[in-house]
Amino acid sequence: MYFLIDYENVTGLGMRGTEYLLPGDHVIVFYSGSVPNMEARHLQNIKDANCSFTVYKLLKAHKNALDFYIATKAGEIFGAGYEGIIIIVSKDAGFHAVRDFWATHSKPSRRVVLGESIEKSILLAGEKHPRTEKLQRLLKNADIGNFYSAYQETQKLKGILQEAFAGTQYIERTGEMEEILKQGSSPKVIYLDTLRRFGRKDGLVVYNTLKNCLGTPPKNPSKKTS
Prior knowledge:
Elements: E1 2-6, H1 7-14, E2 26-31, H2 40-49, E3 52-57, H3 65-79, E4 85-89, H4 96-105, E5 111-115, H5 118-125, H6 130-139, H7 144-164, H8 174-183, H9 187-198, H10 200-213
Parallel strand pairs: 1-2, 1-4, 2-3, 4-5
Helix pairs in contact: 5-6, 7-8, 8-9, 9-10
């Protein structure tokens, strides 16, 4: 996708989401001498993404000059045959006209999406990609009380595991044990996952310790009951 950034308008908040850029993206920043700086983390994220990156600095101050730059660039991109989404990152309502023009007078494949930041624009674009799904999860509102209850349970489990495996060769791998217990839907699943990660010999040791340190120890699925 193309990201046309009205940087003078959105500044740093508009750059939120640079960590979700992909190698196939094109980032074009339009800025003026009044806002010449950007947080280094965003520039580094752009570099790490290995995407296309271009900047245009305002040559001469005029009313809405950068807006005309951006609208002109959008026309140039589509005119060159691009059949995809152009995102304009700006809070300026004037870009609604650009969006509506292309929605009315061009192919459905050519769309202009408006958003106040890179991350919000990615969501609005509705791209079918793992980055969209990840952003949907991260930006979804969550109940603070429920989150805190789950957080307390996690901290309690961390403490139990740290105490149970203190002084053993497995102490550095208690994070994996957390994953095993959280993802395990049954004692059998927990048992098999433990053996898969630790091997049969060490896995049995770890599993038996997990049984003893949990409130309701699961039965060892490898043993048949009469």
